[in-house]
Amino acid sequence: MEIKLQPMGATQTNCYIVTVNNKDLIIDPGMGAMQWIRDNTSNPIAILNTHGHFDHVWSNDAVQNEFNIPLYIPKDDSFMLEKCPLGQNVPISTADYLVEDDEKLNIQGIEIQYRKFAGHTPGNSIIEIKDVWFSGDFLFEQSIGRWDFPFSSGEKMVKSLEKAMKIESDFTIYPGHGMSTTLKQEQKIMSYWIETVKSS
Fold it and tell me: Which residues form the Metallo-beta-lactamase domain (predicted)?
């Protein structure tokens, strides 16, 4: 598995191209991502969104139209593709597949596990491919996603952190912003974040 990443737009949102068996998966194509994707893919087969916020979905429609490939998004965030809850003028896109909670997918022979960790958004999920998590805005290096946006939920964020603390396997984490980390590293401070969210 080969992973390419490029921070996009003012929010420096990480867009990923994940290549498995010469097939490219595009994760979270943000603002201005089209040219970089065009220059760095040879066989794109799908677009995968971790959640519905504007900086992760901005180039969905452009990439769909360019390559004629399907778009996957967690079902509980699909409404954000029609109307941005953060008031941004995002190009509208339409999902081809609404991902169920914790659904396992097989896209052209590539095994993909969506794991729902709501809180930042209603459908916020990580995308698990082999031993890697593309964590969107759930987990960052030494931090977590905000829970004070419209449709965010501190209560759900706490439950998601508690769920993540119980996972025994380790994963390399490629987040929606910033540097990579590991699940074991972030589990060390999850209790701190749980208490922080509860007291907010």
Answer: 12-177
Give domain limits for the chain: 2-198
- Kindly state the helix (H) or strand (E) to which residue 197 belongs, with its residue range: helix 190-198
Class of the CATH domain delimited by 2-198? alpha beta
Q: Supply the angle between the helices 154-165 and 190-198 in degrees, to the nearest 10.
A: 160
Confidence of residue 71 (pLDDT cuts 50, 70, 90): very high
Q: How many CA atoms lie within 13 A of 168 on its CB side?
A: 0
Tokens of 148: 């004070």
Between the CA of residue 198 and those of 120, 136, 151, what are the distances in Å? Answer: 14, 22, 17
Residue with tokens 């997918």: 105
CB 84 within 8 A of CB 90: yes
Amino acid letter, residue 147:
W
Percent of the chain with pLDDT over 70: 100
Give CB contacts under 8 A, 24+ apart, made by 181-190. Answer: 181/139, 181/140, 181/141, 181/142, 183/133, 183/139, 185/141, 186/139, 186/141, 186/142, 189/142, 190/161, 190/164, 190/165
Q: Which pTM value belongs to this model? A: 0.97
Residues 136 and 28: beta-carbon distance below 8 Å: yes
